[in-house]
Design brief:
By secondary structure, this protein is mainly α. It is 89% helix and 0% strand. Helix 1 (2-20) packs parallel to helix 8 (141-165), helix 3 (47-61) runs antiparallel to helix 4 and helix 12 (216-250) runs antiparallel to helix 18. Keywords: Membrane, Transmembrane, Transmembrane helix.
Length: 429
């Protein structure tokens, strides 16, 4: 899972590096703002991946294959419906979002150019969340790794061809991503159909899938679960978007430098999420199988490895920070700004590793309410109040508020798991 996850931010780093070596900072700033507008939707729909993983892991632990397939079908249906609504309302959405984003005229122009292309990849992007979540929940981590690596390699190659070869600049990065997303969807569906052809055929012939898919009680429980995950993700989205938008208001060089730093942050988060993803699958399986002691053991082992990898990340950034930045951009003013704020990236792995791990634990337990409450407290009790108090420090104040926000997420979930809610959390039905 670590190998699988780390390909995603590495691809983002390649995207940033390709654009970052063009001659103007506004290319990178525009593509960053545009990408944020699209990833805001995909991240907001992260509940599709999370709930699918947790529910399918519990079905896997209970040896309920039919329920596992129903979870997959329900998730794909919801993904297609959400993507369709966004595509229908795309003009309204992009106009409002770009007006809120701010930035220079050039940043606005390239942000719109990027987002108007990328938005057509949403059906594939959202369906891929469900497919990857389902494969992960069914303990097919190697298949997930292969799908992600192949998809991201397609994106990487097309980035180089479209941007450096054909000179399509920001449009090239957006088009490369769309082709990669639909390629990933095709491969994922092919893998599932091939492995589950007999079971899918039987369900279609007996029409049991329609009856189970439309089960009113199950649907209400599904949307109730996803409501809490959605609120949790919305809070996280607000913080990330706020950083991007505030960076745009501080200038083209700042928003470009923050784009570099955010890619490093994603490299940290996706790497540490590899351990969290493994934990959520094993926790979900343990809960579904009724193995309380194994559940506790999974959490303890995962905590150790999360802390160790966080320290290694911090050490790597401490040693190679300057080199990593110059790999991504050679614009002097952007490099200077990125170096100025890079110390926050050095400390973030240790501050944030706990929130990634406990998110995974609570996804496996399918106790989204605790995740929601933790995120609400961290967002509105820490991030925004701290930013307001520290805004005179500019970008440093922004990153300081974000660092405390990540730490608070981990502390509140740890407190709930080990102290306040330990009786409820560790009760396995």
């Amino acid at each position: 899972m670590i190998l699988s996850n780390i390909t995603v931010p590495l691809l983002g780093l390649v995207d940033t590096a390709v654009i970052g070596h063009l001659d103007q900072a506004y290319f990178l700033g525009g593509s960053t703002v545009g990408a944020m507008l699209i990833t805001a939707v995909t991240w907001l729909c992260g509940f599709l991946r999370m709930s699918t993983t947790g529910l399918s892991a519990q079905a896997y632990g209970a040896f309920d294959k039919q329920q596992g397939l129903i979870i997959l079908m329900r998730g794909l249906l919801v993904a297609v419906l959400i993507a369709s609504v966004v595509l229908i309302l795309q003009g309204f959405y992009l106009d409002i979002a770009l007006s809120l984003a701010g930035g220079s005229e050039q940043v606005q122009y390239y942000a719109r150019q990027y987002s108007e292309i990328r938005i057509w990849g949403l059906p594939a992007a959202l369906a891929n969340l469900v497919i990857l979540g389902w494969l992960l929940g069914n303990h097919q981590a190697k298949t997930v790794m292969v799908l992600l690596i192949v998809t991201n390699l397609i994106n990487l190659v097309l980035d180089l061809v479209f941007v450096l070869g054909l000179g399509w600049q920001v449009r090239g990065v957006a088009l490369a991503t769309i082709v990669a997303e639909y390629s990933g969807l095709t491969l994922g569906l092919a893998v599932i159909i091939r492995s589950k052809f007999g079971e899918l055929k039987l369900m279609l012939q007996e029409k049991t899938w329609f009856r189970l898919l439309g089960n009113r009680a199950a649907l209400l429980e599904y949307f109730k679960l996803n409501r809490d995950i959605l609120i949790r993700t919305l809070c996280l989205e607000v913080c990330f978007i706020f950083i991007t938008f505030q960076g745009a208001r501080l200038g083209d060089d700042i928003v470009a430098a923050n784009a570099i730093l955010m890619n490093f942050l994603l490299l940290i988060s996706f790497g540490l999420d590899g351990i969290a993803n493994a934990a959520e699958v094993m926790v979900g399986k343990a809960k579904g199988a009724g193995e309380g002691k194994k559940l506790k053991s999974v959490v303890n082992v995962s905590l150790f490895w999360s802390g160790l990898f966080a320290l290694l990340y911090s050490l790597a950034f401490m040693i190679g920070g300057q080199y990593f930045i110059t790999l991504i951009s050679d614009i002097p003013s952007v490099v200077q700004q990125a170096n100025l704020y890079f110390s926050w990236i050095i400390f973030l792995p240790v501050l944030s590793c706990w929130c990634y791990l406990y998110d995974g634990v609570y996804i496996g337990l399918m106790q989204a309410k605790a995740m929601r409450n933790s995120m609400l407290l961290a967002t509105f009790g820490c991030f925004f109040p701290l930013w307001w108090l520290l805004q005179e420090y500019g970008n440093h104040g922004l990153w300081a508020a974000f660092s405390v926000f990540m730490l608070m997420r981990g502390l509140t979930l740890a407190w709930h798991f080990h102290i306040a809610g330990s009786g409820k959390v560790l009760t396995v039905k």
